[in-house]
Design a protein that fits this description.
With 185 residues, the chain is mainly α. Helix content is 81%, strand content 0%. It has 7 helices and no strands. Helix 1 packs antiparallel against helix 2, helix 4 packs antiparallel against helix 7 and helix 5 packs across helix 7. The radius of gyration is 21 Å and the shape is elongated.
Length: 185
């Protein structure tokens, strides 16, 4: 295969041939142009990076779609985690807290614990997490800004979220219990 030998024109030909099919497949599932373009681009990055070791047993189309499906699974996992966490946290802050001094102190304490948990992470992981959460940058934008791969960005974000769950699990359970207990009273 010419692609395995690094033939860029062969790669461009494959890109032109399959890009719209892959794009349509993803877009019909996630309805986000930016995320669709990122996912499809990642398929071609994986293809190029692994071109020398590719062993295609069926067809190139099936191979590309299998890469794409793995990308989609990863996307849905990360998007689901982000949206569920953000939704629950926003609901908690918005609906559960009033203006009492004790509750403001509790929110400040939670914020400090989150920041302390993030501070335990390696510097690059912290930077990626804050760029994602505070500046709302996509993984592609973060990768470009920091000059690292998008996969590395996703790994850092996964590590940060897992670390937060591990470090703050007891705090979040406490908050849920406190809220439920106060709702009963």
């Amino acid at each position: 295969m010419r692609l395995q030998n690094g033939d860029e024109s062969a790669f461009a030909s494959l890109y032109d041939r399959y890009w719209s099919k892959l794009y349509a497949y993803v877009y019909n599932r996630i309805r986000s142009q930016e995320d669709t373009e990122e996912l499809v681009q990642e398929v071609f990055i994986v293809l190029w990076e692994n071109r020398q070791s590719i062993v295609i047993t069926d067809s190139l189309s099936l191979y590309l779609f299998s890469i794409l499906k793995r990308q989609l699974v990863s996307y849905f996992r990360s998007e689901k985690v982000k949206s569920v966490f953000a939704e629950h946290f926003a609901h908690f802050i918005r609906g559960q807290m009033d203006n009492s001094t004790d509750e403001r102190w509790a929110v400040d304490d939670l914020q400090q614990r989150i920041e302390a948990a993030i501070a335990e992470l390696p510097n690059k992981c912290q930077e990626v997490f804050w760029l994602s959460r505070k500046q709302q940058l996509s993984s592609l934008e973060i990768a470009s800004q920091l000059q690292i791969s998008q996969r590395t960005v996703e790994n850092y974000l996964s590590r940060a979220v897992a670390h937060l769950k591990l470090q703050l699990g007891d705090v979040l359970v406490f908050w849920a219990f406190t809220y439920l207990f106060s709702a009963v009273l």
